[in-house]
Amino acid sequence: MNQSRLHELSEVTNREELRQAFIQAGAYLGFGIFSLAHVQPDPDGKPGPLARSIYAMPERWLQYAKDPNEARSDPVFNRLLSSREPFFYDQEFYASAGQGEMWERSAPFGIAAGVCATLHLAGGRRIIWGFDGHTLPGSESQRTHLLATTQLL
Q: Closest by alpha carbon to 118, among 148, 70, 77?
């Protein structure tokens, strides 16, 4: 991602501009689906409902994406809550977490592999984002570039 795109992202002033900036970033990275959310903890310190989110994903997938029970069992979401570095997910990631059926449910919507990251804020708040698609890049250098760009965002 070039410097001017990162600068444009830093200059957004509203939700729609932010959404468009992430759509463009996802396209640059080779992904057509993205989500960005602010997670606010509940008083007991557990992840609460998403305070705000923006996304570009299939409408039919939203019934799953907005289900709190689905999120609690999603290994990607759970890793996002604790991870301090970007990471990849794919079918193997879900299978190793015992959630192969969850991957089977998401893959037809184009949510089969991706990269995601978390920004940890004071008070247990988090900003989480990710880009999803059918496959991950094959080469190590492409994967490294993808992780670095995701972290920069």
A: 77
Q: Distance (Å, rounded) from C-alpha 121 to C-alpha 127?
A: 8
User: How far, in Å, CA of 19 to CA of 36, rounded?
Assistant: 9
| DSSP calls for the chain | --HHHHHHHHT--SHHHHHHHHHHHHHHHT-SEEEEEEEEE-TTSSEEEEEEEEEE--GGGHHHHT-HHHHHH-HHHHHHHH-SS-EEE-HHHHHHTT-HHHHHHHGGGT-SEEEEEEEE-GGG-EEEEEEEES---SSHHHHHHHHHHHHH-
For range 67-77, the mean pLDDT: 86
Helix (H/G/I), strand (E/B), else coil: 129: strand
CA distance 146 to 141: 9
Mean pLDDT of the chain: 89
Spacing of C-alpha 43 from chain mean position: 25
**pLDDT of res. 121:** 92
* Cβ neighbours of 64 (radius 10 Å): 17
pTM, full prediction: 0.88
